[in-house]
Amino acid sequence: MSEAAIPLGVPQRTNPVSVLAQGAAALRNAVFPVIAVFFGSGSRSYSVLLALGIGALVILVGTLASYIRWQRFTYSVGEQDIRVESGVFSRAARSVPYERIQDVSLEQALIPRLFGLVEVRFETGAGGKDEMKLAYLKESEGEALRELVRAQKDEVDQVVTGPEADSDAGDAAAPATAPAEVLFAMGPKRLVTFGLFEFSLAVFAVLGGALQYLDSFLGIEVWDPDLWMEWLAGPGDWIAQLGPVAQALGAVAGLIGLLFVGSVTGLARTVLRDWGFVLERTAKGFRRRRGLLTRTDVVMPVHRVQGYDIATGFLRRRFGWHGLRFVSLAQDAGGASHDVAPFAQLDELAPIVAAAGFDMPPAELEWQRGSTANRNVGIAIDGLLPGLIGLVVLWLALGSSIEELDGKWGFALIPFGVALFLVLRQAFLWRFARNAIDRTQIYRRSGWLAPATAVANRVKLQSVEIAQGPIAKICGYATLHLGLAGGSFAIPGIPLERAKALRSSVLSSIATTDFSQLTED
């Protein structure tokens, strides 16, 4: 389908097959009523028929409601904006100017994907309910609409700011027929390896929530301690007779089982989210596709990349695995950062970073630590509360008689131990919180078990602010807040003179840059 097939200013409906897709989605709404009717009916002779009848009624009502909403929903693509009208009894019209649209993405959930449909999302940068979407269009229609909206947006931007003023022109001027370059992809083997590092125990939270319904359906109070003591009384006596060696082996087996469940859960979640992960450099920018049940297709123009983050974990860093995210003006799954290479080696990240117009952190960077005064204040704050609790417990123990003193000293050691741990942790992590700056970029590094590095372009920063609280003013340190469109970038607890020097360097880069001459590669 070509862009010319979408007439400007003419109201259009979404694809009529979307009624069936939304009706099929009503099956989810029918599951709970069917279960409730089946277990709640007094007679087993007709409970199945009654439950199926209720389920069919829910699906029928849901499909009918979807059809009515589809009939009353229209959208039109104009020269200055895109307009949506909806509502059954009361009509609502919403118009979004093209200059407010950050990006247009396509998403395919499982059921719409079976019908060959996509959901078109218009990212406005506001996030949440303010985002506009069309559910659903054919895949070819969604692709054509995305290209048409971007073309209209480019025309509006050039009229408002001039053909040389907006860096969007760099992406728009790229030849539309240029072949896509695959920058990063994850095959099944890489995906399985990634999933094994994504350990998760979320399945136990789901099981805990499901167990709460057993009381309603089976009359079992899962959280009754007496019930568990009764169930474990027999096995407990049997385990006690096995001896310490068998008990230790049983504990090891339980731990292995826990690790197995966590690994399988993390693997399943990773496969569902990142199956078929492909990042391409196209004429329109970075195109990322991923997902098994829900397939997403996001295109992010190069000029919208404001910065990037490189992070790793405690185990994966030992094997050289890192994750790369771009900080963008558009939203990605509710956040400002887009996963562009979630599981890669450092040499695989360098071409992606270069394609976005950034540089990897050079080895000769002069990293600076934060203020020692900030470290000392953090140590005092972290250890203050548990230390006071320990002193109170110790004072109460000293006020007891000799007969009552037995055992109370140990309680005082617990908060003191917590205070010591927090103090040592704060002093240790301070050594790994560093910052640096070079001719074009500013850097922030933090973390020891899971180190992360944030990088921002000095020219793309919107503002620079030095913030000091009462304690910081007395001790001579500050937090440097850098205005990064689409995200946040702060360097906390650095000496005041260092903060002023960084602010001066960033402001000089912004002041000496002629933004009307900026173009995309």
From TrEMBL:
The chain crosses the membrane at residues 46-68, 191-214, 248-272, 377-397, 409-430. The keyword Amino-acid biosynthesis does not apply. The keyword Transmembrane helix applies. It holds the Pfam family bPH_2. Residues 70-148, 279-322, 430-504 form the YdbS-like PH domain. Keywords: Membrane, Transmembrane, Transmembrane helix. PANTHER family: UPF0699 TRANSMEMBRANE PROTEIN YDBS, UPF0699 TRANSMEMBRANE PROTEIN YDBT. This is PH domain-containing protein. It comes from Parerythrobacter lacustris.
